Amino acid sequence: MNKIQVFCDFDGTITRRDTVDFLLSELALPEWEEIEEQWVKGEIGARECMSRQVALIQGGWGKVRELLDTLNLTEGVHDFVNWCRSKNIPFVVVSDGIDRVIEYILSKNGIQPDAVYANHLIEDSAGAFSLQASSRPRLANCQSGVCKCRLVGQQAYQMIRVVVGDGRSDFCWSKEADLLYSKGKLSEFCLAEGIGYNDFNTFFDIQDSLNAVSQGLYAPVVFNKPLLPLAVPALAPGLSNLPPV
Q1: pLDDT digits (tens, 9 = 90+) for 47-56
Q2: Residue numbers of the domain that contains 169
Q3: Do 160 and 197 lie in a common domain?
Q4: Closest C-alpha to 136, from 123, 122, 114, 152
């Protein structure tokens, strides 16, 4: 059986709503919208956009936490992560969002991924925020804080690379995935680009699909890339195939 690893986006995928957009709309100074427009027009990259916008969020972590407590998760994510663990399938969160936000929401909901890759939030003594882009290697033309393509495209992954996502930050690595689960803008992009994908609404959908794949039942699933037989030993308990955070 081919081994599987799941790479999952966070905002709009694990959460029903994009946490960064939510925080900006509720807590940031109005200039964040002008910065957003510059990014949409392609005048600045995602890394610069996020860094400038996060610095505009007011109220410190206390206000941020109050808002995060109102957010809903996509149905089935807790069960899905537990299922992955029971099957020795590594589940990692890869996001161009904010590490402290992601870790808070996951911890609050009892969800334990094998790793989280995201931008690092810094708060000073006055409650002002700044954002530090991920220090992980990125492709030369990558404008994001976290280079999803570099992470999922590493040759060390001798397994079925499953990508789960929903939006613009997932466009690039959707092409690298062996097996893609998508919704929203990502599905629209895949249709336009001819990228093979599988629709999902809840993580129960993904679990049912991957359960079939784990049993070698590939017919009901759309693969983005041809599936090749891989002679890969089972992962050790420490999941050594994962790159360091």
Answers
A1: 899 999 999 9
A2: 4-15+73-119+134-214
A3: yes
A4: 152
